[in-house]
Amino acid sequence: HRGEKLFKCDVCGQGFSTGSNRNDHQRRHNNVKPYKCEYPGCKLDFYRRYQMLNHQEKAKHGDLANSNKT
Predict the structure, then answer these.
(1) Cβ(20)–Cβ(6) below 8 Å
(2) How far apart are alpha carbons 23 and 38 in whole angstroms?
(3) How far, CA to CA in Å, does 36 sit from each of 31, 57, 60, 66?
(4) N or C terminus: which one in the chain shows less Cβ crowding within 10 Å?
(5) For residue 1, what pLDDT is reported?
(6) Selected residue with higher pLDDT from 38 and 13
(7) What is the arithmetic mean of pLDDT over 11-34?
(8) DSSP collapsed to 3 states, 3-58
(9) What is the rounded CA–CA span in Å between residue 53 and residue 11?
């Protein structure tokens, strides 16, 4: 069972080992970016939570990024 990619993208057929990775991938086809930067005045949004947190750190939104860690 190692290396099997049982979760297929509905759009392009690419395989993934987890449903979560497939869902992240499919967001790109549908241009769904559910993770919004909450910093006042920042209008960026992201496909994945870690991308938003990285942005907040690099854009000096550090206090906000630290408060969102779970």
Answers:
(1) no
(2) 23
(3) 13, 14, 16, 15
(4) C
(5) 59
(6) 13
(7) 94
(8) CCCCEECCCCCCEECCHHHHHHHHHHHHCCCCEECCCCCCCCEECCHHHHHHHHHH
(9) 28
Which amino acid type is present at position 54?
Answer: N
| pLDDT tens per residue, range 41-70 | 899 999 999 999 999 888 877 565 556 554
Tokens of 49: 């939570």
Specify whether the backbone of 3 is left (phi greater than 0), alpha (psi in -120 to 50) or beta.
left
Nearest to 42 by CA among 27, 57, 22: 57
